[in-house]
Amino acid sequence: MRTATVYAQGQPIDLAIAMQAAEWLATLMSGETTAAEKTAWQEWRQAHPDHERAWKHIESASGGLRQLDAQASRKALLQSPISRSISRRNSLQLLAWVSTIGITGWFGARSEYAPGFARAALADLSTGVGERRELTLPDGSRLHLNSGSAVNIRYSGTQRLLQLVRGEVFIATARETGLPYRPFLVETVHGHAQALGTRYSVRQADGNTMVAVQEGAVRLTPRHADGNRVIHAGQGGGMTAQHILPAHAVSPDIWAWRRGLLLADAMPLRDFLNELSRYRHGLLGCDDAVAGLRISGVFPLADLDAVLLSLPDSLPVDVRLRTRYWVQLEARQQR
What we know:
Layout: E1 5-8, E2 11-14, H1 15-29, H2 35-47, H3 49-62, H4 70-74, H5 88-104, H6 114-121, E3 125-126, E4 133-136, E5 142-145, E6 150-155, E7 160-172, E8 184-188, E9 191-204, E10 209-222, E11 229-232, E12 235-239, E13 244-249, E14 261-268, H7 269-276, E15 283-286, E16 294-300, H8 304-310, E17 317-323, E18 326-331
Parallel strand pairs: 7-8, 15-18
Antiparallel strand pairs: 1-2, 3-6, 4-5, 5-7, 6-7, 7-9, 8-9, 9-10, 10-11, 10-12, 12-13, 14-16, 17-18
């Protein structure tokens, strides 16, 4: 989840805390809250003044929503397969509900996060969390959208342009046969990635755009800097709006998401959880004491709850389900 500042009761508050409050409200509205969850909710409120402030804000912003009939509420709430099963459609309903609270409460005109939501909602093509999509573009190029991604398609008589609104795409470009020749470009907030006969991925993160090239080459041109750099097959590179980042070798494992897999090779646990969080609703975190533990393996993206529950088999950690949307990994307790 990106780091951003939103507002609660007129004062800035961290986005992660705001979303935690939203998830607690969703949990309490589900009609199936356990005594342990209620205790954890109270502990969370008391853990930091910002938690209590975030809670009071979203409770106020939601108004009478908490008074909805419990059965009706349950139909609109996400329930993780760790505890209960529910359809993808219902998880999307929860996101829409939380977004509505955010637009009227947190994600207002002063929030830098709001435009991203709006652009993604209006994009030509998009995927939800945990969803991937593949399609053929008008020129025959193949486009793969990773989880939580959105693009606009802007083809014209002079260029083939994809605007990457958020997330990650993989493109296998088709040979341009018409005249005049139309370059193939992926545009992000940081600049352009131009294909030079290419199979490559482009991932837009908070502070940079990263590119990994499988075949051919890609020319990176930052939005607010002179010059460019060509990244060749087997390499990765990146850019901010002002700078080009150094090129480096990449493993083919970087594209395993196209096969529904996450490949980890001695990956720090915190980085591993950050990757998993791209494909699962809710918050995934770990204590600093275990953040540096290394994990290796091939993990199916289609069953992340099973992946999380299997981690104690290979690492000295316990999985704590604070709510069905908030999973925390802690150092294993002596028993």
